[in-house]
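May I ask for an example protein's residues together with how it folds?

___
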Amino acid sequence: MDAVVRERADVDIVEVGPRDGLQNEDTLLSVAQKVELIERAVAAGARRIEAVSFVNPRLVPQMAGAEEVMAGVPRDVGASYIGLVLNRKGLERALAAGVDEINVVIPASDEFCQRNQGCSVADMLSVYEGIAADTVGTGITVSVTVSTAFGCPFEGDIPPERVVDIARRAAEAGADEIALADTIGVGVPRQVADLVPRVRSVAPAATLRCHFHNTRNTGYANALAAHEYGVTVLDASVGGFGGCPFAPAATGNIATEDLAYMLRRSGARTGADVGELARTGEWLGAALGMQPPALLGRAGDFPT
């Protein structure tokens, strides 16, 4: 599948479908299907793709076969592949598999961190600092996602000061990029307007990224608010699939095709082919045996 020639982008969309999009689905895709999903994303213009997760497949069976997926992804197409890492063993696997970037998730909620990652937030920060030190000189880009930054299913509202402190420590340890994640889709634009400047003030050298779920139909409004506050990197999942297996009622990510359409109509370039993305969302829905939550594939592009 040939990749499209990508125009310069005002907003980079990180395609998280192969990881966050699949990790909560009942249907398990084969390695070949996962590779095809990545190939289709590249053909639709994606240039940063969260391809795999180096977690225990017994806990998250949808993420099995990470090394085999990385062995099959298209290279020399201008794409950068991200692997999720939660510990030193995961880092060793990621480096051996040839990822271009690693992403470490640090929840802003102790209860969520304990249930999701089996440790406290303070412990996870220490783990991250060790991972960051181990990647010095490797040429690997390191990003930190602050999950439950807008709310936790167990603790409720998260004080913004807690998110800011985690971002500050991540930046001090050398994070190239910091993502603010609304893991369970409770955030609203007012929170985005509050958090983004606060985090930017303590991590001025890091790229700021945002990750939204559309659980309560606020994900796209939040993404547009983030863009208006200067965020130039946004996560999305083709077809709108996704969720967290450790968070009750955490439904899908904002859909890549719907986000790309909204941004284009708002005057921002993404380099994405929305028609190809919509077709990929439909293909993924068929593979998973369900209707994609995304709407562009149903309504079609405009103007046609």
Q: What stands out?
A: The two ends are 24 Å apart (CA to CA). The CA atoms of residues 40 and 280 lie 6 Å apart. The chain has one domain: 12-299. Residues 12-299 form a domain with the TIM Barrel fold (CATH 3.20.20.70).
